[in-house]
Amino acid sequence: MLLDAHSHLDLYADALDSALEEIRQHCILTVSNSLGLESYQRNLEIAQVCDWVLPIFGVHPWFAPEYVDRLDDLTKAIEQSPMLGEIGLDHHFVEDASQYAAQREVFEFFLSAAKEQGKVINLHTKGAEREILDLLDQYGIRGAIVHWYSGPLDVFREWVARGAYFTIGVEVLYSEHIRTIAREVPAEQLLTETDNPGGPKGWIGGPGMPRLIVDVVKGVADARKTTAEAIMQTVQANFARLVRDDPRLVEACARFPGGLNGE
Ligand SMILES: [Zn+2]
């Protein structure tokens, strides 16, 4: 079994059927993150036709301004979702600093729910790595998956010390900085992702398809001087452990074909 712990299946449009076919064919357990409410509805529908999909709810920082004045509308979806994502802050791709207050308000709304409901979060941290780390400390949140970390190494090491999980993606095939991160993540905190379909575009020249995770696993194995098989096993065991610690995730993952082994 392969793990794609950060993807966006709702964004596939016409290519969805072939994407789901690849997911079944390669046995890719896929955490499908949401950008907002409609995106979550779409992910829930997709999960109904594919047992390999774990749909989760979040408001991506790029869309925070759309939700900041109606946070109560998010409550039901937050309660329903067994993990929260994609949430976070973005001070890198979003250059318009007037949006940062809205990003922070929406993000803190999710953090207080995550704290109260004891939920794992799937995080976008671009350009705000230090600020998010401080917020997690403030809210006392431990269950965090950091998606595509590409920030400074000193902050990365602080994240590591707090026990966060890291999803390494396609950039491991192209960037020495990401290879360093892939090498330094302690084995028990390592996960894999694609950020499909949009995330890999800048690296592979078009939308990513699910089997890209096979190349990611090879890239991580290469960076860590081990085998793809060893990485697959490590990642599966890590995800199984993360799920095992949360009864809602256990329930949500019970339908995965073959279950979640690896402990
Ligand atoms: Zn994403």
What is the gist of this entry?
The protein is 46% helix and 14% strand. It is α/β, with parallel strands linked by helices and 263 residues long.
Elements, N to C (H/E): EHEHEHHEHEHEHEHEHHHH
**Cα-based radius of gyration, to the nearest Å:** 17 Å
Largest sheet: 5 strands, parallel
Overall CATH class: Alpha Beta
Shape: globular
Assembly type: single chain
How many domains in all?
1
Helix content: 40-55%
Task: Give an overview of the whole structure.
With 263 residues, the protein is an alpha/beta fold. The chain has one domain: TIM Barrel (Alpha-Beta Barrel), CATH 3.20.20. The chain contains twelve helices and eight strands. The protein has helices spanning 16-26, 37-49, 64-67, 75-80, 100-117, 129-139, 153-161, 176-184, 201-204, 212-223, 228-244, 247-253, and strands at 2-7, 28-32, 53-55, 83-88, 120-124, 144-147, 165-168, 190-192. Strands 4-5-6-7-8 form a five-stranded parallel sheet. A three-stranded parallel sheet has the order 1-2-3. Helix 10 crosses helix 11. The protein is globular, with a radius of gyration of 17 Å. It starts with a strand and ends in a 10-residue tail after the last helix. It binds zinc ion. Zinc ion is lined by residues 6, 8, 33, 86, 195, 199.
